[in-house]
Design a protein that fits this description.
Elements (H helix, E strand, L loop, with lengths): L10 H16 L3 E2 L5 E3 L13 E2 L2 E4 L4 E2 L4 E2 L5 E4 L2 E2 L4 E2 L2 E4 L1 E3 L4 E4 L1 E3 L3 E3 L4 E4 L1 E3 L3 E2 L4 E2 L3 E2 L3 E3 L2 E3 L2 E2 L1 E2 L4 E3 L10 E3 L13 E2 L4 E3 L3 E2 L4 E2 L4 E2 L8 E2 L21 H25 L7 H36 L5 H23 L10 H11 L4 H7 L2 H28 L2
Parallel strand pairs: 1-3, 2-4, 3-6, 4-7, 5-8, 6-9, 7-10, 8-11, 9-12, 10-13, 11-14, 12-15, 13-16, 14-17, 16-19, 17-20, 18-23, 20-25, 23-26, 24-27, 25-28, 26-29, 27-30, 29-31
Antiparallel strand pairs: 21-22
Helix pairs in contact: 2-3, 2-7, 3-4, 4-7
Length: 415
Amino acid sequence: MATSPNVPTSTTDQENNRARVAELAAAGVMVWSPERVYIGPEVNLEFISPGAELINAIVRGASTRIGARSRIGTSGIAVLSECQVGEGVELGAGSYDGATMLDGVKVRGFGELRQSCLLEEGVELGHNVGLKNTLLTSTIIAGSNINFCDVVMTGGRSRSDHSEIGSGVVHLNFDPRRDKFGSLLGNADGVLLKSAPIFVGGQCGLVAPVWVGFGAVIAAGSVVREDVPEKALFLTNPRPYQPRRYDPYAYPKSIRTQVMKTARLIGALCAIGAWYRYIRAPFAEGGQKALYVAGENRLADMARVRSRELAATLDRLESALASHSDWSSEKAGDHSVLLRAKSAVIRYLSDVYFEVIKGPPEEFLRAYESLRKGATHIDTISAISDGATSAASKWLCQIETVVEGRVEMCLKKAV
């Protein structure tokens, strides 16, 4: 029988574990009970900072870091593997695998954070929250019983004026054809904390891919199948049920919209990646630099996933086109354009994150550098002048636009 890599397997290792736990305690890490803490032999003990609290914890992974004043396992066993945890983070019971959590993040309990999740400063999650390939920027608050995989969400100005996800919200990212898309709530310049917050009411469903603008309010119980403009109120209007024939292997409508929304989402990831590369990491202090480098790696992973999933969708479209000779010439023609552009689009989107991206405006860079010394990242960007912030906003949005424009050009050449 296979054994979970997170579970200790031998009494010998348990004995060695006691020695590792004792070494951490001697270095100033607070261990509530040595019998309720397991540290894998691959863990670099120097990456667990004095002042951190290990309450109920299984800690694995050579890249795992835990910052000072962070409390791990507050409501039951927390299993960490290849995670980077900032300072003052509180993690309840749950599974955290391949996630980066910056200072002040709080997860109340029974959460599951899977590959390539990045939670920025002050993000709070309720109970039973599942995330994967997801970015939540600073101060976003989420309720309980949420499944929010393949999402980038920004927006809000402060802890008292934040974007929010109500309890019971589901991001519906998977369809019967096995196509998976991501959604973008806000834009890349939401990292500047100057944007109106987005409110997603409880018990909502977001059918990927959708874009939701800053300041939008989605009423509780709504199902969002289309983009929501900025400062708009979205409310589902009930319609009578009308059964109709459905072929799960067909693509009856053009998926050009899904392709362009994927490009926009990858563009946002590229822009926020540039933000980490040129703004956050160079002026980070202490262990924060390692956190920010890990954060950018998470963003790169998210971009890879989106391009890979789009390639798989276009492969399925090609098979569907070959087996549906009854499709109208107009419909088949648009699908054929996408397939002729497939190689160019996927090649570009697979590499774009790693292309050299022009750095930020000098005015913003210098202002950030001077204000960052001794201050938190949040306090620093909040103190920067509106003029410098506006220039940074244009820089971030330009990166998004360039990615969309290149994909649109590929499609035009394939006509």
